[in-house]
Amino acid sequence: MSTATFSTLRTQFAGLPIADLARQFGTPTYLYDAKVIAEKVADLAAFDVVRYAQKACSNLAILDRVRRAGALVDAVSAGEIRRALAAGYQPEEIVYTADIFDAAALELAVEHKLHVNCGSPEMIDQLGDVRPGADVTLRVNPGFGHGHSQKTNTGGPQSKHGIWHDQVDDCLRRADQYGITVTGLHMHIGSGTDLEHLAQVCEAMERIAQVVGRTLTTISAGGGLPVPYRSTETYVNIEDYFRLWDATRNRLAESFGHALRLEIEPGRYLAAEAGCLVAEVRAVKKMGDNLFFLVDAGFNDLARPVMYGAYHPIAIAPRDGATDRPEVDAVVGGPLCESGDIFTQKEGGYVDSRRLPIARVGDYLLLENAGAYGFVMASNYNSKTRPAEVLIEDGEAKLIRRRETFEDLIRGEIIPE
Ligand code: LLP
Fold first, then answer.
1. Do residues 226 and 194 touch, judged by C-beta distance below 8 A?
2. Which atom of ligand 1 is nearest to the CA of 307?
3. Is the CB of residue 12 less than 8 Å from the CB of residue 20?
4. Distance in Å, CA 333 to ligand 1 centroid
5. Which residues are catalytic?
6. I need a labelling partner for 53 at 20 to 30 A (CA). Which of 68, 71, 74, 172 fits?
7. Which residue's CA is minimally distant from atom 8 of ligand 1?
8. SS (HEC) of 33-102
9. Residues with beta carbon inside 6 Å of ligand 1?
C-alpha cells in the first residue's frame, strides 16, 4: 500500500511557483490542481456511478470539472441543488440526500423531479404528498458508524442521520401509501473512516437489501473514503474496496434476478488532495519556549483544525525561493481574535508544534490537503472576507472565485431608521 509524502519546504504547486501565485492572487487563497481531481474520479472508474458529494468543495468551476470527468452529483440543500444545475448537471444526474426537506429543497426536488435519498421516514410522507408515485432511495443507519472524529461519525444511535435499520419495514409501508417505490438503498457511516469499518457496511447493506427486496435497482456505498494527511498514513486500496462491494452487489443481483447499479459518493477523496490554502507569514514571535508563525489565514478560512483537531500538512514556500532552511519547532496560527485560531492543534484544542523550516515574514505558508471541507466551511468571523479560489489547469492559473470585498461582507445588512 502506498504512503503519502509531504515536504515541509515547497516552491511549486501544480507546476507553478507558489510565490508568483500568491503575488498574483493575494493571500489567503485556495489553489486547486484540476489534474488531481480528474485523476481521483478516474481512480473510482470501477464503480458504475461516482456521485460527487459536493459539500466537500462546491465552487461552480470545480463542479464543472468533476462533471466533465464523468461523475454525477449529490446535493444536500436547495443551494447545492442550484449549484449543480448552474454547473451544467441535468436534473436526472442529481440526487438530493438529506435527513429533512426544508421548504426550498422540497420545492426544487418537485420542480426538477429529482431523485430523493430519504434520511427520515417523514421525508417519504412529505414527498409522497406532493409527488406520489416517485422512486426514492432510503438512507439507512445500519446501527454503527465511524469517522476521523466523533463529529464526522454518521452511524449508530448517537447519529441523527438516516433511517434506523429496524424501521425499514415501516418505511416500506409508508411508501406504499403514496405509490412510492424504493429503488435505492444507501449507507454512509462516516467521513474519513477506514477500510475495516467501511467493509462492515457491505454486510449490513446485504441484510437490509433483502428486507426491501426486488424493487431495488441501485445500492450506494456512500462516501467516507479517507485520504492520507500525514506521511505515515497510507492510501486505501480502492481495488479491494470495490471487490467487497462488487461481491455484495452480485449476490443481491443473483437473488433478485436483475442487475444492480453500484454507486459511490465521495467528497474528500476527490477534492482534498487537489487543494491547498496559501497564506503569508506576517509574524514570527516567541511566547516562552514556543515559537509562533502567524499567517494571514485563520480558522475563518480553514476550520478543520479548530473543529476536529484535524492535521493538515504544512509547508513553507520561501519568498526568496530558497530551497534550504534550518528547521525549528513552530506553532502555526492565524490572525483571529481567538486563541483557538491555531492550525497545529490536537483534538480538544491542545496546542501542538510542527517541525518546519524557519519562516521569515513575507514567506508563504501552505496548508495542504485542504481542497475538501476547506473553502466551503469558511466564514466571515471577525469580519474577514472569504478567500479567493484559483484553479490551475494545464499550467495556467484561473481565478474561479474572487476574494470577497467589504461590500460583500455587509450585503443585506440594514440600519433601521
Ligand atoms: N455522503 C453523505 C451522505 C455524507 O454525509 C458525506 C459527508 C459524504 C457522502 C462525503 O463524505 P466524504 O467522502 O467526504 O468523507 N466537515 C468534515 C466532513 C463532514 C462530512 C459530512 N458528510 C471534515 O472536514 O472532515
1. yes
2. 24
3. no
4. 26
5. 337
6. 172
7. 223
8. EHHHHHHHHHHCCCCCEEEEEHHHCCCHHHHHHHHHCCCEEEECCHHHHHHHHHCCCCHHHEEEEECCCC
9. 53, 56, 97, 152, 154, 188, 191-192, 222-225, 265-269, 304, 372-373
Is this structure's pTM higher than 0.90? yes
Give burial (CB, 10 Å; 0-12/13-18/19+) of 326.
Answer: exposed
> Could you tell which of 191, 263, 268 is best to mutate to test the pocket of ligand 1, judged by most ligand atoms within 8 Å of the CB?
191
- pLDDT for the residue 375: 99
Place of cell 440526487: 95
For the stretch 354-384, pLDDT in tens is 999 999 999 999 999 999 999 999 999 999 9
Which residues neighbour 235 within 8 Å (Cβ) at sequence distance 6 or greater?
1, 2, 3, 4, 227, 228
C-alpha cell at 9: 519546504
- Quote the CA–CA distance of 323 and 66 in Å, as a whole number: 34
Ligand 1 atom 20: residue of nearest CA: 191
Q: Residue 1's pLDDT is what?
A: 63
How confident is the model at residue 147, as a pLDDT? Answer: 84
Positions in the chain whose pLDDT score sits under 70 = 1
Per-residue buried b or exposed e for 11-35, using 16+ beta carbons within 10 Å of the residue's own CB: bebbebebbebbeebebbbbbbbbe
Q: What are phi and psi of 369, to 5 degrees?
A: 50, 40
Confidence (pLDDT) at 154: 86
Give helix 103-111 / helix 78-86 axis angle, nearest 10°: 40
Going through 68-223 in order, the beta strands assigned E by DSSP cover 72-75, 94-98, 115-118, 135-141, 163-164, 181-186, 218-220
DSSP 375: G
